[in-house]
Write a sequence for this structure.
């Protein structure tokens, strides 16, 4: 995967969230900036925020602290960016969700997959005679490991949401 | 009130009295309203939208007000793109308005439809598409706020045709707020203290003043600080003129074609104070070797400039004028003992003197250096000089001296050939009391030459001095030095037009200069002319602008200087 190659070169993933004005084109402005400034996006997700008229964009990217600093400054410069929020791994809940179509023609494969799902707290959401659709959510690393685990069955399709994250409350228990 | 009326009344409210542009299908309603308000706003019908955009830029740079350019949809819009990009690179305030097909037709590949929002997104500070006529005035006011506050820049506004003709009920507001846009202007006092501590402890300090100082009108504050501290100062291409260049402490312009003593200073300084400069590669040369032994104080209004190219020891975010005021105050009250820098200053002044003496000796014949040196003696300190892009621009940067800001307008960041003539016309419109010169190249001039017609129509007088060497001279020079003289696509030769005849074709006048002795006479003649006048100066074809830092190399690898750097490219080529 392309992002894996970047990850090898830059071992430090950063996650940031942006609060942006919910205006047409704001997503282009953000993604355009990455292209323009030669930054590499790993994942990018958009959704609503608690504030009316403000959306939240969550971005993960690889790069050293200098890249991180530049990127935050450049993003902050966009008129539609209201706020940037740093989401350090230790202080944030970071989640990814994947839907996998796994080939399970043989019964033992079905059983094995169900066992794996149990262990990973993944859910089987669709079953046919030839394949099953599995939904797995969790830390990106967990999702990656699960995908690696079921790869030998044969994965015919995959959809990932990309990463979304939220800062832990100050007295949160810090697990997961 | 209709949308077009609201639009024009909002512009009038923002003190817009000059608009540059070309009409077309999608902006007919706008121009209709401008026609009704021609007592308040003068429109200049240009011959190409690129010219219009550069005129707006020249106008903005001399007045400090945002230049307003209007183009129609599709090709009209794409033609202003170069001008917008140029303004973006040089932080020139600009309001660019483009027509657009009616809202319901957007996305249908309609006639003269193009996605100007997508196209201008990376080259503007911000852009807007107004789909709701009720938002017209509010959006225009926002655009002015964004274009002028903080670090200035261009804002593009997409105006669908139907929005211009629909009824608007809402009143034009007096002001607008943009909660997500709050530029910093007053600097934090803490880094100022730290900066003064560094400056006081340094033995070889130097200042680089960039275009930001000109935009901030910081000339007095800068002068006071330099005088008080006796720190030698160089400027960037964009900052030229912010400090009087004949002053003893002036080192002229630094960088790729900068003065060798300025580059020498940057190589040897132990404390670099940069104000309103973004450390462009044309200033720093290779970053690996730039000021490696110096502590760097970087002051800029745009936080993202700090740490972008150069690692900084003391970052200061704020308006250059405010920063210099605070620096000055802190410098005069600080208890830090100031090291003696007189040996350093003396050394630089000696190098400067020796280099200028060497240069003086070479002044003869039909060289661009000689011509511009003569022109420098001829011009008055209030005259405005605009340039195209190429060798003549760098010769101008090298040999012309200025004692005031906003007298030297050039396309610095973008290097837009064709900037000269239209920007000069815009400058003249903005500052009609001053003589305006366009120092141009034969290549650069031909890119926007049609604006001679605009000059004729509106009786705008500028003096065009073409450094005609029959080549794309700058690239010719690169090819000579770096490509073993393989002159690929740089020769105009006899295909160049007779520029005097061309002036005459536009019902203007001009004169050809082939001898050194004719030049001053030609300048005098041009000065007397009531209309735009062309001086076609036939200069030496193979002159190079030197010294030169080869692209990608460090300032210490500057080649072919006259005094400090005397090496040829062959000598430097394999040195790391």
């Amino acid at each position: 995967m392309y992002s894996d190659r970047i990850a090898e070169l830059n071992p430090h993933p950063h996650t940031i969230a942006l609060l942006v004005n919910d205006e047409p084109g704001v997503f282009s402005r953000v993604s355009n900036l990455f292209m323009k400034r030669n930054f590499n996006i790993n994942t990018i997700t958009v959704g609503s925020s608690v504030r009316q008229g403000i959306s939240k964009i969550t971005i993960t990217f690889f790069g050293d602290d200098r890249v991180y600093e530049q990127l935050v400054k450049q993003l902050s410069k966009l008129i539609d960016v209201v706020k940037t929020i740093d989401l350090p791994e230790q202080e944030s809940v970071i989640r990814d969700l994947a839907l996998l179509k796994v080939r399970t023609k043989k019964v033992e494969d079905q059983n094995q997959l169900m066992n794996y799902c149990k262990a990973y707290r993944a859910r089987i959401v669709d079953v046919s005679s030839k394949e099953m659709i599995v939904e797995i959510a969790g830390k990106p690393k967990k999702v990656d490991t699960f995908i690696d685990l079921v790869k030998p069955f044969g994965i015919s399709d995959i959809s990932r949401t990309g990463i979304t994250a939220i800062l832990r409350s100050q007295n949160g228990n810090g697990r997961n | 009130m209709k949308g077009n009326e609201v639009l024009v009344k909002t512009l009038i409210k923002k003190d817009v009295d000059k608009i540059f542009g070309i009409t077309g299908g999608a902006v007919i309603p706008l121009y209709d309203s401008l026609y009704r308000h021609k007592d308040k706003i003068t429109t200049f019908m240009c011959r190409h939208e690129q010219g219009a955009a550069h005129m707006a830029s020249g106008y903005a740079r001399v007045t400090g007000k945002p230049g307003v350019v209007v183009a129609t949809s599709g090709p009209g819009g794409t033609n202003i793109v170069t001008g917008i990009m140029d303004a973006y690179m040089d932080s020139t305030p600009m309001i660019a308005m483009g027509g657009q097909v009616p809202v319901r037709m957007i996305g249908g590949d309609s006639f003269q439809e193009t996605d100007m929002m997508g196209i201008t997104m990376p080259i503007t500070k911000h852009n807007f598409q107004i789909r709701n006529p009720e938002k017209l005035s509010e959006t225009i006011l926002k655009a002015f706020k964004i274009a002028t506050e903080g670090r200035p820049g261009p804002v593009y506004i997409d105006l669908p045709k139907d929005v211009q003709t629909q009824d608007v009920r809402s009143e034009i507001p007096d002001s607008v707020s943009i909660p997500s846009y709050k530029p910093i202007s007053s600097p934090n006092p803490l880094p100022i203290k730290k900066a003064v501590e560094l400056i006081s402890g340094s033995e070889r300090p130097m200042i680089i003043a960039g275009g930001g100082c000109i935009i901030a009108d910081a000339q007095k504050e800068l002068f006071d600080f330099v005088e008080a501290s006796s720190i030698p100062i160089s400027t960037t291409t964009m900052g030229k003129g912010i400090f009087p260049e004949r002053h003893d402490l002036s080192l002229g312009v630094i960088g790729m074609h900068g003065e060798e003593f300025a580059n020498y200073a940057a190589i040897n300084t132990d404390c670099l104070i940069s104000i309103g400069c973004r450390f462009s590669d044309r200033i720093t040369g290779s970053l690996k070797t730039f000021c490696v032994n110096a502590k760097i104080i970087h002051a800029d209004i745009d936080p993202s400039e700090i740490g972008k190219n150069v690692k900084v020891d003391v970052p200061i975010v704020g308006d250059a004028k405010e920063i210099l005021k605070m620096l000055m105050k802190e410098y005069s009250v600080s208890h830090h003992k100031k090291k003696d820098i007189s040996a350093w200053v003396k050394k630089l002044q000696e190098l400067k003197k020796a280099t200028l003496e060497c240069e003086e000796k070479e002044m003869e014949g039909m060289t661009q250096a000689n011509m511009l040196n003569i022109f420098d003696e001829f011009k008055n300190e209030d005259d405005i000089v605009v340039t195209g892009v190429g060798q003549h621009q760098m010769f101008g940067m090298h040999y012309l001296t200025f004692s005031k800001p906003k007298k030297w307008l050039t396309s610095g960041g973008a290097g837009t050939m064709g900037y000269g003539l239209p920007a000069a016309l815009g400058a003249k419109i903005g500052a009609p009391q001053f003589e305006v010169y366009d120092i141009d190249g034969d290549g650069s001039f031909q890119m926007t030459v049609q604006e001679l017609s605009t000059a004729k129509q509106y009786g705008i007088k500028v003096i065009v001095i073409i450094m005609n060497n029959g080549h794309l001279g700058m690239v010719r020079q690169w090819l000579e030095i770096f490509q073993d003289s393989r002159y690929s696509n740089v020769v105009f030769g006899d295909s160049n037009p007779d520029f005097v005849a061309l002036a005459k074709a536009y019902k203007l006048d001009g004169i050809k200069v082939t001898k050194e002795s004719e030049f001053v006479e030609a300048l005098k003649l041009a000065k007397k002319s009531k209309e735009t006048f062309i001086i076609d100066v036939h200069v030496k074809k193979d002159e190079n602008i030197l010294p030169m830092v080869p692209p990608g190399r460090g300032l210490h690898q500057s080649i072919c200087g006259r005094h400090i750097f005397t090496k040829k490219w062959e000598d430097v080529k394999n040195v790391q």
About this structure: The helical segments of chain A are 2-9, 26-36, 65-77, 107-120, 140-150. Residues 1-6 of chain A have pLDDT under 50 and may be disordered. Chain A touches chain B at residues 21, 24-25, 28-29, 32-33, 36, 66, 69-70, 73-74, 76-82 (CB under 8 Å).
